[in-house]
Amino acid sequence: MKLLKSLTAITGLALLAAASNVAAGTLDDVKKKGFVQCGVTTGLAGFSFPDEKGNWTGIDVDTCRAVAAAIFGDAKKVKFSPLTAKERFTALQSGEIDMLSRNTTWTLTRDTSLGLNFAGVNYYDGQGFMVKKELGVKSAKELDGATVCIQAGTTTELNLADYFRSNKMKYTPITFDKSDETVKGFEANRCDMLTSDQSQLYALRIQLADPGSAIVLPEVISKEPLGPVVRQGDDEWFNVVRWALYAMLNAEEMGITSKNVDNMKKSEDPGIRRFMGLEGIKGSGLKLPDEWAYNIVKHVGNYGEVFDRNVGQGSPLKIGRGLNALWSDGGIQYAPPIR
Amino acid sequence: MAVDEKESLAPAKPSLWRDPNARAIVFQVIVLAAVTLFIVFIIKNTLHNMESRGISTGFDFLGNESGFGILQSLIEYNESSTYGRTFFVGLLNTLLVSALGIFFATILGFAIGIARLSRNWLVAKLAMVYIEIFRNIPLLLQIFFWYFAVLRALPGPRQSLNVGDAVFLNNRGLYLPRPVFEDGFGLVLWVLGVAIIATMVMTRWAKRRREASGKVFHTFYASLALLIGLPLLAFLISGAPMSWDVAALKGFNFRGGLGVIPELAALLFALSIYTAAFIAEIVRAGIQGVTHGQTEAARALGLRPTPILHLIIIPQAMRIIIPPLTSQYLNLIKNSSLATAIGYPDLVAVFAGTTLNQTGQAVEVIAMTMAVYLSLSLLTSMFMNWFNARMALVER
Ligand SMILES: N[C@@H](CCC(=O)N[C@@H](CS)C(=O)NCC(=O)O)C(=O)O
């Protein structure tokens, strides 16, 4: 069945590649069909997670919503495709989805050999380890000989191999397709530890039956800049996705929030007026309505708000801003100006 | 009319165009050429378009370092091996679970199929319940069931179930002592080879003699003595050149010994048990397909039940059983790709999974994977067809 599923996706890819020439015009397609088709995880708290009613929430979900809000002035015009790590790139290449927003690490290989482009970074992460408390392990250096649960088709698989190799330690990898299988394997004691991007470890930890039974080790062994991805060769669409993200960052920097955005519209500040689409280039460069940035903040919120309610203090994950604070607050989130 | 008759009377060769044979060949060549051209066109076009979209193509990636670990490998493999090698690691793991699955499913299936026809009410009903249950639950659920049920039931490595400090069972696997062959073990293998040939010769001789004279020679015990006794003797004479590598708990896990991972066990259980239910029905149908008159005629000749089964029923039933059995074998091989759900590193999980994803070369990887399943299926079919031809009734 799995084989069948990937077969259809790949036949689709081959046929599509055989039929049409360049993957251009996603923005026009999206406008025509009236919604954004967005690839997300099969369920990872804080990033993209469906509740019982099928409503998706998460920081990656909000990136898609921001794009929809910029285009349609309506953050609900998004359809989500849950994808495993293995399926995600083929789904984007074959045109099954318009954008991929699925805690995906930006690497040289992915950016240059898959026919895809990363449009920005919505979360700076790094790989960490979660172990059973009862093992009494305090540091990743004590993990020689451990059995590790991981997810197939991730950078995690590669970093893990690198880390153990360079520290001359041995490990046994158990590779699952979906994160809930990975978690089940960990809970059923098939492995001693689970490794993934650190933010995701906190998310997986609260999905455990007994979160107290596991601890996240302090080591961070890699750089995992996560961000939205689009098809290569479609600059128009690339710009829309990238600037939707930048608008959220700029809004936070300027102090524009979903609550005060209507008031701020009356501001005399030229920067804010440009943001609201009242002055300057407005929406014409992006081929979007003039109030595109206003709509993003109004319907989705600024980056700080999105971070806070999904993974920060307003969420069960309670992850600190760390690297993801604005550059002006000691972090590295930095967006070019809207002008 | 008259003209026609004349023509048909004269055996003059028709023009090439009128000759149905020649025409058939011409048409076939045209169709074949068209299909080939079409495929070449598709491939070229796909390659061109993938390139223009910035997707890497070609098979060069097979020589690059893989950089990821694999849970189980029958050949030497580590993170610095190539992607090409991950293909073979995955392929061998698929072959391993398929071969073992076919073996156990066949044994279990035949046993249950025969039990289903038992005159003992309880045995027959139990066999029926087995068939109905396992045939009707989706295989993927059965795989998950065995995997998580087995894992949950077993203790961790530090509390392993332990048989004589040699065999350990825990949720990381079953650890058996691994035989280590030392110099001189070659002799035992040689003797085993000789014993196998001797057994084959003996079986032939016994068959010929039975056909010629009707005298029966029971080859079973003689074969057993040859196959086990002779190598054992050689083993003892050469001074028992073998030792055991027993697994031991080191750090988190057991090291050494021969480990059977729970993923393999669960997948094997599920595949064998599921497929056995279908095979049982095939066996039942095969046996019932042999008319009752055959049994009665054999009884009338004074044959006893066991020879009736061996000499009359089974040879005729096999004729009915083998073709559908072949498709069950093919199903089992293809179903083994569900392995990826529980992390058993088969071809689909390793090569069409991780390798595909890390290199992004979906078209190449999937083409190779499809070619493997196609060849495996064709090879199995070919073997079973050959077997079928051998088992078919030779009518005199
Ligand atoms: N950032 C890494 C890892 C991404 C990843 O797939 N993480 C897992 C965490 S266990 C996940 O999100 N799983 C959710 C799912 O399978 O739907 C990558 O891009 O390769």
Discrete helix count of chain A: 13
Tell me the name of the CATH homologous superfamily of the largest domain in chain A: Periplasmic binding protein-like II
> In order across it, which strands form the biggest sheet of chain A?
10-9-11-8-12
Shape of chain B: globular
Number of individual domains of chain A: 2
Unreliable runs of chain A, pLDDT <50, ≥5 residues? 18-22
* Sequence of secondary-structure elements of chain A: HHEEEHEHEHEEEEHEHEHEEEHHHHH
Question: How many structural domains does the protein architecture of chain B include?
Answer: 3
Largest sheet of chain A: 5 strands, mixed
Please give a structural write-up:
The complex is a heterodimer of chains A (339) and B (396). Chain A has 13 helices and 14 strands. Chain A is an alpha/beta fold and 339 residues long. Chain A has two domains: 2-124 and 226-326, 3-Layer(aba) Sandwich (D-Maltodextrin-Binding Protein, domain 2), CATH 3.40.190; 127-222, Periplasmic binding protein-like II (D-Maltodextrin-Binding Protein, domain 2), CATH 3.40.190. In chain A, helix 3 (59-72) crosses helix 9, helix 3 crosses helix 12 and helix 9 packs across helix 12 (292-299). Chain A is globular and about 60 Å long. Chain B has three domains: 2-52; 83-177 and 246-391, MetI-like (MetI-like fold); 179-240. Helix content of chain B is 67%, strand content 7%. The longest helix of chain B is centred in the N-terminal third of the chain and has 34 residues, at 83-116. Chain B has helices at residues 2-9, 20-52, 83-116, 121-136, 139-153, 185-213, 219-237, 262-288, 292-300, 305-335, 347-359, 362-391, and strands at residues 161-163, 167-170, 173-176, 178-181, 242-245, 248-250, 253-255, 258-260. In chain B, strand 2 and strand 3 (173-176) form a beta hairpin. Chains A and B meet through helix 1, helix 4, helix 5, helix 6 and strand 10 of A and helix 2, helix 5, helix 11 and helix 12 of B. Residues 41-44, 84-85, 103-105, 151, 154-156, 178-179, 182, 196-197, 200, 224, 226 of chain A line the site of glutathione.
